[in-house]
């Protein structure tokens, strides 16, 4: 897959996290910085990026108190802002370069920031909470550095960092991709979920089930589902396990990551060349790196094991909706991945109880898991299962945080002009959406210079984007095509006529 | 958590102490600068000694005593007393003299030209006194001029329409006023040393601190080897344009596209150049702190009228001009005499009706850019002094030659119709006067002036008058889109009632690419109020920007529908059509109507367009 790539270390990519409440006194400005990538930049450069960001946040609040700076578009760079938590900002600076196809949607970049922050919170809790726990900032820095660096490693192909460019315009980060189930399979899944629910007795367990890289079922809230789905596809599913295999999910880019992994471990984590201000390096405590690569493997009884959380330790994550910490158990059978979330209060005797839960799952659910896997495999249409001939599309349901799109291999057949036109159209729709906030109905069909139709339809929280490359089609033909698609695949949601 | 700012020796300490910048109305603009400046360190060690990097004029504020900031903060406002005083002092100083010299001898800034003819009204200060006569278009900038509702969209706040008045309003405001911050659209012109030159709202002198902040943002990014174009925050866009030593900034929450806002800054700059020429750059080369605002004294009406036109005049985004519809023979007659005048050594001769062209001619190889025409007519229409007597004034056409002054002879035949004769020769007043007399004779003889008045009264093309193809009529009754139950001869009239033209057509703009002209239909029901018209123009602007994306080149067709309109755009090598329909209009019928409109315009092109004018190539 071709994506905008940029070499690391140079001016082309910067990512920082800073806290506006810190370093308010002259001479203490460095205190604001919680994370900066690349870490080897001089402090003055880091401070100038953060100074500009902070200055513009303050400036824009003069006129727009309710929404501060979101993006700075300069001749050579885009600065993308995201206020992850109150007064905690993430800013990404990317270099524009048409030659290497560095053309993107700002919203797609902002969704990366949102994604890395959500994942961080899922594993470590909020940044503010960690700051309050340890006021010098050493704790949060020692967590953010490995976490974001590991996240960015996923975007490296060789030495190049690849950001979501216009070629990924028919994808939506921060959404879940679902597997469509036949009725009988759905009943089997339902029954399996029931068993998983009650495998610890009276305390209810949440579960998330994936088949390949698609979601089969979840009992979590949409937000928690997105985070866990994202992590699963990054690290847990069979596709994620078999490294080196070509991925068709945007969550995994290249497969070569050894170079950066080793660099990040040696330079940033062990503190030998600690780039943090002195007094802040708190390297005594072991920092858990949930996004570390190649750390998961299949254990004897079908559960995935890892030593990221320590030898024989079971990972825990934080659920946003219920505000509770849960144990994360992952069972894998063929292409089926079951993520079971056991509330911590249910586990009194640590690993002993965990083993018991695992035993219960195998005992009670094995048969059902086999059956579900069989049903799903039988109905599985492969990578191109959701290809609709003649269409290149993206369907987003914002309420459910779900999306479905043409397979990347098929999208890649579109002409560059069509993708650019669609990317521009999406940018326009993004700005309309951010302006009005309220949901509105909208229909835009554009015939681009190369005669392709690029189409956007927004209705009741649902979005449909499409590129049609049949040159002979008129506006009415294109409308009919959308209508047919809507009727067949979207229960007529986008039928506006 | 407010620190003891009163005892703090440095203003930046005071500001950094406040953890909640958004609630502090007083010190924000200073804060921004401090943040920018204190962060721009070459080495970490500099943090401790608190040294600041020099930004030219922008750092004037740094030394401001903390008490100043504090006392102003107490009033809920920030003005830097010292900067204001300096500005006042300089006005009476050297630059002030420069300005007054220029007022007396407007040609001082051009190279090697003689003083103008004795009758020239030049820059005699009358310019600022323009009155209501220019506001013939009933209008309101209400939604922009008004303060936005605290928690809502100002567009729904007011339905009343007030007559638009030229000139600056809300002069008492500055950046500390909540009302000022809530204005929907600000325009600023400042020098690269941070001196305010123009602000749409508020007193420029009081905005010195704010101006310095804008300058600091621009130079901070520039120092990093880049150039800031746009900052987005919620509904707000801050658009920057750097033109040599002149910085232009727009802060807007009006839902216009970045491209168009930048285009507006470009026109604002052009308007300034039209008054002063680009040779002002040299003044900044000589003296970086040159204060240019006195040079523009009294021109508020020109700028406010231009800003107003951004919301009613399609020429501002189409970069084309429009003609007053008039019989072909009459336009020809006018064109002939204008051409003759040009042959006698006049560079451009234009016969105008308000902002519309009746006819124009240029000397050999001389071509006039539509933007120059827009700025020129805005300048003349918004300056009352041109109406009172014949005038001879130095002007510069920024697209034609931004470096040099031309001399414009302007004469109004009546309230609406005027002639403009442009020449390079400053001593040509009497010659141009003779030309005008010749032109006037022709106009009187061929009765053009009264025909012009008739054309104004009749208006331009109306969507209601579009002839409807019989086949469409049949199709309409079969599709039954408008909910009519019976066909018959009255049906078409029924369709039109209350919905503008046939099949829900409300309005259109047709732009001829070769002629660089456009024709726009009169507004019909239901687009009647100025607010609705402005909203439609904004929709067109977005459509235009979407079709003309810089990277991709023009798209071919666009269909766009939301709760307000159905819009159709069609771009061909010959023309562009922008049409607005009822949001419920039938797509197939809308497409057919667009074809009808194009046909109709072609049928009438001799009356609505100026044909055979010297080809405009640039």
TrEMBL record, chain A:
Write out the GO cellular component annotations: Mon1-Ccz1 complex
Gene Ontology biological process terms from the UniProt entry: vesicle-mediated transport
For this protein, the record's InterPro entries field holds: Ccz1, CCZ1/INTU/HSP4_longin_1
Question: One Pfam family of this protein, by short name?
Answer: Intu_longin_1
| Residue ranges constituting the CCZ1/INTU/HSP4 first Longin domain according to the UniProt record | 16-125
Q: Which family does it belong to?
A: Belongs to the CCZ1 family.
Q: What is this protein called?
A: CCZ1/INTU/HSP4 first Longin domain-containing protein
**Protein source organism:** Arabis nemorensis
TrEMBL record, chain B:
Residue ranges annotated as compositionally biased, kind Low complexity, are 1-13
* Record-given protein name: Vacuolar fusion protein MON1 homolog
Q: Name one GO biological process term.
A: vesicle-mediated transport
Q: Where is the composition biased (Polar residues)?
A: 20-45, 475-484
Q: Where is the FUZ/MON1/HPS1 second Longin domain?
A: 345-438
Q: Where is the FUZ/MON1/HPS1 third Longin domain?
A: 504-603
Residues of the region (Disordered) are 1-168, 473-493
This protein's superkingdom? Eukaryota
State what this protein does.
Plays an important role in membrane trafficking through the secretory apparatus.
Q: Which Pfam families match?
A: Fuz_longin_1 (PF19036), Fuz_longin_2 (PF19037), Fuz_longin_3 (PF19038)
* Matches recorded under InterPro entries: FUZ/MON1/HPS1_longin_1 (IPR043972), FUZ/MON1/HPS1_longin_2 (IPR043971), FUZ/MON1/HPS1_longin_3 (IPR043970), Mon1 (IPR004353)
